[in-house]
Write a structure and sequence with these properties.
The chain is mainly α and about 180 residues long. It contains 7 helices and no strands.
Length: about 180
């Protein structure tokens, strides 16, 4: 819990204060909205590593809780960040809402996909292997963002479609783990 409050203080207050109005840039907002996957994947690996779900409904519940955890942190980061920038400038300042909506949908789709695939991986391999895979995935995403951050708003819609396909594959694979026939 202390770690989460520390993260909220860093990403919700300190970084937005440091960046000022640049925090509201669509690329920065896009990066923030996609951070849910960074938290939902490990949370799902932990949830699925604790014990094996007996039904798909239980598996969906565990993945859903991991997704809500990751997206809840993202909402806290964004609300506090926008409030910090607005208070610092003495008036309400908002990001480009259309770009924010597109990247928020991409972030949600990514969090869903990562949670489902992390859950499957924890069942199929182990939670330790899953955490290693999550670290590699996050490193790849970090490098991609570093070199192509300006394109994030341009690739939101295709990214959502790609996440939907990957999530469907993850559900199929998870069903085979939870309900083998």
């Amino acid at each position: 819990m202390v770690l989460h409050l520390f993260l909220i203080a860093i990403f919700g207050i300190l970084i937005p204060y440091w960046k000022g109005s640049d925090f509201l840039d669509p690329a920065v907002m896009g990066a923030y909205t996609c951070m849910g996957a960074l938290f939902s994947g490990p949370a799902a690996a932990q949830a699925f590593g604790a014990s094996r779900p007996q039904t798909m409904q239980e598996a969906y519940r565990r993945a859903g809780k991991a997704i809500l955890f990751g997206e809840g942190l993202v909402v806290a980061f964004l609300v506090l960040g926008i409030a910090t920038v607005s208070l610092d400038h003495g008036r309400l300042m908002l990001p480009e809402l259309d770009a924010l909506a597109e990247t928020a949908l991409l972030g949600l789709a990514g969090a869903i996909t990562v949670a489902i695939l992390a859950g499957w991986s924890a069942l199929h391999f182990s939670p330790m292997v899953t955490r290693l895979l999550m670290r590699l995935l996050f490193l790849a995403l970090l490098l991609g963002f570093y070199y192509n951050s300006r394109r994030l708003t341009d690739v939101s819609i295709p990214g959502i479609a790609l996440c939907a396909v990957a999530a469907a594959l993850g559900v199929f694979l998870m069903r085979k783990e939870v309900c083998p026939q």
